[in-house]
Amino acid sequence: MRTNAKLVLGLALVVVAGSAATVWAGLTPEEIAKLGTTLTPLGGEKAGNAAGTIPAWTGGLTTAPAGWTPDQHYADPFAGEKPLFTITAANLAQHADKLTPGQRALFETYPDTYKMIVYPSHRTAAVPQRIYDKTKEFADTASLVENGYGVTGAVNGIPFPIPKQGIEAIWNHLLRYRADAAARSISQAAPTRGGSYTLVEFNDEFYMVYSLEGMTEEKLNNRILFFQQEVMAPARLAGGILLVQETLNQVAEHRNAWLYNPGQRRVRRAPNVAYDNPGTAADSMRTSDQLDMFNGAPDRYDWALVGKKEIYVPYNSYRLQDPAVPYKDILTPLHINQDLARYELHRVWVVDATLKEGARHIYKRRTFYLDEDSWQIVAVDQYDNRDQLWRVSEGHAMQYYNVPCLWTSLEVHTDLQAGRYLAIGLNGQNAPYDFTIKRTPEDYNPASLRRSGKR
After folding, report:
1. What does the DSSP assignment read for 161-195?
2. What's the rounded Cα separation, in Å, for the pair 329 and 321?
3. Which residue in 143, 140, 410, 146 sits closest to 298, CA to CA?
4. What are the tens digits of pLDDT across the range 407-430?
5. Which residues contact 21 (CB under 8 A, 6 or more apart)?
């Protein structure tokens, strides 16, 4: 499928292209004054759209539905809401201007089964007040290190709430608030075209030191987060553990990663856990840097800030983690069960990433769509070396209202050429997320990894 060379933007914004080598010099006092007034505290447009189909942001969702407790899966605050309409291949042209090229390609590839059920829009994204405060505090000091491979002059908050370059928007995603720490038990599946699959079970931990209260850039020691992932099933993979120390200035120091091999009972360096190396037990259906929609070093691409666009994105996707919904009902052939997916109209930042000359990656070009209220990437279009659309990714987002933060309930990466997809983050049949774990950096080093090893 040939790529469309131009994006039709819903707003008349200037295209900011070119190299990320320019160092950002901070916002003006006039721009900073907009944060929390005409803009949300994280830089989104506070007002709704002219058509009234996107509401104003009024603080997001920070109150749980009555009767809900943190030891449960998240109750859907919009469970009784009726859809506005359903997009199908038959009425695709009517809605094409509010779809990404990747979304349109899904309708063209699966015209008989693919659909998008569109609901009223709710701007539920919210984070703690201290994150808002730090975003404004560092708005005039945050800057990129050389070539944009790192950030300095900011901690806790979003470093570039009013981005002027594509790489700034991507750093906003990488540094967005996703709680202080989290533990989750999730499942991953890569169904065949016929729909058969084997579940891979993971226990993940995230320790987001960049976001910790009282953190300073000096105390970070160039670490923004620690990530540990243990494979629990199937038996042939069980016991393997990945440990990652993610860095803020990736010029000074690249990502550190180690793997525990249960067969050898050894911890080894894992320099290949990055870029386009295959994701863990993903049947080559995603790259390492596709977890969390995008992670790791941005140095292999040139990043262009295209502008803003109104599109239908997966949002408030509580049904995909509902324990009443078995995984077999989600994991249907060719694509997930779209009866369970929820789409809403939201404004997103569009960032186009083009592979640098001489750099290597299986994706020659990637277009990212970032939610304006949270900086969560909610969709990605990925192109191969023939400039053909190859894979389409969607981050089905929801507000974890007790934290509060907006994060995904499920990531889906669809391979248009193979007729398959990968779903990672299935949680409804596993234990609920635990945002109460207490950790320190000493819990995430090779010695601790060796102690965690089993078998």
Report:
1. SS-SSHHHHHHHHHT----SEEEEEEEEE---TTS
2. 12
3. 146
4. 999 999 999 999 999 999 999 999
5. 146, 147, 148
SS (H, E, C) 95-156: HHHHCCHHHHHHHHHCCCCCCEEECCCCCCCCCCHHHHHHHHHCCCCCEECHHHCEEECCCC
The confidence score (pLDDT) of residue 146 equals 83
User: Checking phi first, is residue 205 left (phi over 0); if not, alpha (psi -120 to 50) or beta?
Assistant: beta
Query: d(Cα 95, Cα 76) in Å, to the nearest integer?
Result: 27
Distance CA 264, CA 415 (A): 34
- Give the Cβ contact number of residue 251 at 10 Å: 14
* Percent of the chain's residues with pLDDT above 70: 94
- In angstroms, the CA 425 to CA 194 distance is 21
Using CA atoms of 278, 281, 282, 286 in order, give the dihedral in degrees to the nearest 10. Answer: -20
Contacts of 80 (CB under 8 A, 6+ apart): none
What letter does residue 356 receive in the DSSP assignment?
P
Q: How far is Cα 60 from Cα 39, in angstroms, rounded to an integer?
A: 14
Residue pair 248/210 in contact by the 8 Å Cβ criterion:
yes
β-bridge mates for residue 415, sequence order: 391, 420
DSSP string, 67-102: T--TTSPPP-TTTTPPPSEEE-STTHHHHGGGS-HH
Separation of alpha carbons 318 and 449, rounded Å = 33
3-state SS class at 267: strand
- pTM score over 0.70: yes
How far apart CA 359 and CA 365 sit, in angstroms, is: 12
The full DSSP string for 213-238 is TT--HHHHTTEEEEEEEEEEESTTTT
What is the rounded distance in angstroms from the CA atom of residue 272 to the CA atom of residue 261? 15
Residues 108 and 1 sit within 8 Å (Cβ to Cβ): yes
Q: Which residues contact 443 (CB under 8 A, 6 or more apart)?
A: 207, 226
